[in-house]
Amino acid sequence: MDQHQATLATDDEPTGLIDVEQAEAALVEHYPRLVRLAYLILPPGLGRTRRVLAAHALAQRALPRNRGYGTGQDPHPDVGLPWQRGTKNPGADSTGYAYVRLRVLRLALRAARQRPWWRRPPALPQVFGLRLFPRSGGADELALEKALSELSGPGRAAYVLLELEQLDEHETRALLRAAGVADARDAVDEAESVPDPAGSRDASLLESAEFDPCSLQARPTDLMRRRQHLRAAVVAAVALVVCGTLLGMPGRGWEPKGAAAPSYARNPASERALDPHRLTRAAPDAWRTASRADFSSWPARGDRARDTALLRRALAVWARPGGSVRVSATMGTQSGPPSGPPQLLFAGEVDRATVVLLYDGLRVARYAEADEGGEEGGGGAVALDFARLDAADAGTSTALVLSRTDGNVRYLTAPWVRHAWVRDLLHPAGAPRLLRRTGDGVTDPVRTVPRLRPCRGWPALQFGSRLVADLGELAPARLTYGAPGAGVRDVAGRAARASWARTGCRLAMLRARGVRSVNAWRFAAQALPEAGGHAAWLCTRADTWRGTGSKVLAQFQPWDTRRGRTGAVAADADNSPACGPREPRVLAGVLWKARSGHWYLLAAGSRQVTGIVATGGVRGRTYGRGLTLPAKPGARADLKAHLANGTRLGPLG
């Protein structure tokens, strides 16, 4: 209990280090909301077009340069900021979002109090020939815009945190002070002087299109001046082409062209890896006779599987992506070129984009190019995503993500999947919904988890008895239930689904970690004092594809917790063997408040525990797996457990 304490009366706090990958994941996932926050805080006098560009620039500059925060490198450490209870922000455990939001708030406040932007050259995104601005709203939005223009920068920031992020006054003042506002109380008072908007019952006017810098209208700039500039640009481009042709004549030139960068090497192995005719293709029924069921037995599917030009572009971009290609990789995944000809899994049109899935035995690469008016040759934007999927089996190679569009996900299912359903983890009694698929195994769109309210529902895919959940990566994570080792099984039965119903919201903590599987294990049950009912102790373990970087949570779940709500996280640990096959044991404790107002120290251990001893702020012992002792609010205790083999076990964390 000296490392972790949790109560049902408080929420989690974002403590520890936030590395660049976690901050980037939060920035990408919640980018529209962060840009809206910066847009509302910036001075309206900038003009709508420049304000839009500045908001995007601030949100993109919020990504930290250091490996993490709270290490002494950041002059404004964020570790002490409490998470907000009962807000509309993304997930009670999204420490990455809290950190990036604070950085956006600091940058926007700094820009609001500096000298006018038009007198200095800021690094803004550039859009030539167009003026961009949000869609116009009604009379209520115009009145609110006028009222915000009369506030100071801290006042606008306080209003946005209160109305858009739905924080209370105490949380708003704490966040403003962390962002560098000297007098946060005056800023909150200034924000509360704004008349209440006449918005709808369930949404603030700040969420309307009037204040959305990501949903824009475009109008041309001065057309006569553009024609004059165009003539000069054409002359310069012709001269550049002539000079470039002369310089590039020796050798074979820069091919293939397109989104790929210039060739990095010319050797037989590299050329074979770039040859679409050498791609590995599994036979359509190879999975029926293969010695193991994994991605290597998937046949090549899709209506563009024989499109040599498309496959050549995908291989070239994989080997040497150009500067315009958006490249992403899950944690611990290399993004380098393949060592030899990879295997083709899919090539076809999906949601106004052309997608190619390639597998090299260690990684899966998804190449996607946006369709630009049906133009051939990859004229649209290009994205390249990687995920490490080595040592897969039949349970972890059931599906891959093909596309993410407008909050929906389409999957490519394994050839051995006969039926697919969608099941809501948070409603275990509900019947699953049949998921339709094409002949190639492409599913209908599946709604992703709501970003602002992840505990409203968590859709999971069910393939037979197997259950998988989307964690924002190319391969969904398999969900299991039971004791580590031989006891782990699929999520089936009333007890398993009820446990996952109160654990599903915790999956938000596991995004962008390269998770392979997540197992929930009910290791103990305990009677609560003062006839408070019973509680279950669960250990949730997430294992990754790379083997390291596991995440373990010990949860305390009273049985009277409302449906869809999670219990308290009593302890958590990274890179711990606890609750796994190597160490199938765990000990955890929590402070619990009874209805009478009295506090108790509750602790429980797994089956191997024969006694628990508490020292420090709470003292006592028990000869069994459960411990209940009277305690004071905020008391800190040290727990030790005795095992049946005579050894001792410390608490998780």
The share of residues in extended strands comes to 15-25%
Distance separating the two termini:
9 Å
Proportion of helical residues: 10-25%
- Overall, the morphology is globular
**What class would the helix/strand composition place it in?**
alpha+beta
Average pLDDT over all residues? 81
Rg over CA atoms: 28 Å
Count of separate DSSP helical elements: 13
How is the quaternary structure best described? Answer: single chain
Q: Characterize the main sheet.
A: 10 strands, mixed
Number of strands: 27
Query: Regions with pLDDT < 50 over 5+ consecutive residues?
Result: 1-16, 68-93, 116-122, 198-202, 246-256, 373-378
Structure overview:
- The structure is a single chain.
- This protein has 653 residues and is α+β, with helices and mostly antiparallel strands.
- The protein is 23% helix and 24% strand.
- Strand 5 and strand 6 form a beta hairpin.
- The N and C termini lie close together (9 Å).
- The N terminus is likely disordered.
Question: Keyphrases for this structure?
Answer:
653 residues, disordered N terminus
Summarize the structure.
The chain is of the alpha+beta class and 653 residues long. Helix content is 23%, strand content 24%.
Task: Provide the fold topology.
Layout: H1 20-29, H2 31-41, H3 48-61, H4 95-113, E1 130-134, H5 139-149, H6 153-163, H7 169-178, H8 184-192, E2 216-220, H9 223-248, H10 268-273, H11 286-289, H12 308-319, E3 326-329, E4 343-349, E5 353-359, E6 363-370, E7 382-388, E8 399-405, E9 408-413, E10 421-424, E11 433-434, E12 446-447, E13 459-463, E14 466-469, E15 477-481, E16 489-490, H13 494-501, E17 515-527, E18 534-544, E19 551-558, E20 568-574, E21 587-593, E22 599-605, E23 609-616, E24 620-622, E25 626-631, E26 637-643, E27 648-649
Helix pairs in contact: 1-4, 2-3, 2-4, 3-4, 6-7, 6-8, 7-8
